Amino acid sequence: MGRYGNCFNPASKGKQNLNAMKNLTSLLFLILVLIGHSTKAQNDGSIRGQVLDSLTKEPAVGANVYVMIGDQMRGTTTDIDGRFHLKPLVPGTYNLVVSYMEQKKTIQVKVNPNQITMMSDVLLTDNLLGEIEVTVYRDPLINPEETSVTTIRYEQIKNNPHIRDINKLAGTIGGVQVSETGQANVRGGRSDAMIYFVDGVKVADGNIRLPGVAIGSLTVYTGGVPAKYGDVTSGVIIVETRSYFDLWAEHNKGK
User: Fold this and answer.
1) 53: Cβ–Cβ under 8 A, 6 or more apart, which residues?
2) How far is residue 223's CA from residue 235's CA, in Å, rounded to a whole number?
3) Domains of the chain
4) Rounded distance, CA 98 to CA 101, Å?
5) Coil vs helix vs strand at 117
6) What is the average pLDDT across 203-219?
7) Hey, is 193 helix, strand or coil?
8) How many CB atoms lie within 10 A of CB 132?
9) Whether 8 contacts 14, CB under 8 Å
């Protein structure tokens, strides 16, 4: 074929292009994952509680408390008073596992953006038959320490006729009013003073168009807005989309 016969191989060139495309696709996917993680991290929540022995009411010191995020474990241990604070957690539904000696309890917990989920006491009982697992559902909606913030979740809004209208959904919360033009405001304040966030990303004009099934939670601050949101003269509406954990919990509900 001559001395230049092997310089061009179409099959080899095509394989190189295919590998390059695969590498580029993987890189873009990684970038999107990192961007998604960084934006959601702005609205991280946490879980706080205390682990006690159900009979003696003594604190369980050194109990393991953790959740699984994909194949990654995020956990902590209880202190000398049996207390724990697990953070940071992206808003969503988690199976919180409390493990101590031969005892184990799994509690389904929902984490809200920028809030600490305060759990009631986790009670463990000595088990002579080995490890047990109990699944309990916890859904605290009222935070006595922050009366100016309210969160409604997918379970509460999925049958709402306004599920596709963020402002009208927010209007179901006390202190929020919706004008004839469909704009939301807090206690008669200016509608253009409302600030909106979706998964930690600010939406300038509040024009949020999401399918109803994508909304995991809607949180509204009618006062006492955290400094991280800047100088707010009205209120803040925060939308968190449903995560894999929310969909998994819904799929396994009742099983």
Assistant:
1) 59, 60, 123, 124, 125, 126
2) 7
3) 43-137 (2.60.40.1120), 149-248 (2.170.130.10)
4) 10
5) strand
6) 82
7) helix
8) 12
9) no
Residue 160: Cβ-neighbour burial (10 angstroms; 0-12, 13-18, 19+): middle
Beta bridge partners of 52: 59, 123
What is the rounded CA–CA span in Å between residue 174 and residue 171? 7
Binning pLDDT at 50, 70 and 90, where does residue 10 land? low
In this predicted model, what pLDDT tens digit does every residue of 165-190 receive, in sequence order?
888 898 888 888 888 888 888 877 77
Instruction: Give residue-wise pLDDT tens across range 189-203.
Output: 776 778 898 888 888
User: Residue 48 in contact with residue 67, Cβ under 8 Å?
Assistant: no
Encode pLDDT of 23-80 as tens digits.
555 555 444 444 444 444 467 889 999 999 888 889 999 999 999 887 889 999 999 9
Q: Can you give the length of the chain in residues?
A: 255
DSSP result, 99-127: EETTEEEEEEEEE-TT-EEEPPPEEE---
Give which of 207, 195, 194 is closest to 164, Cα–Cα: 207
At residue 198, φ and ψ (nearest 5 deg) are -125, 115
pTM: 0.60
Scanning the chain, the segments in alpha helix (DSSP H) are 10-40, 154-157, 166-170, 244-252
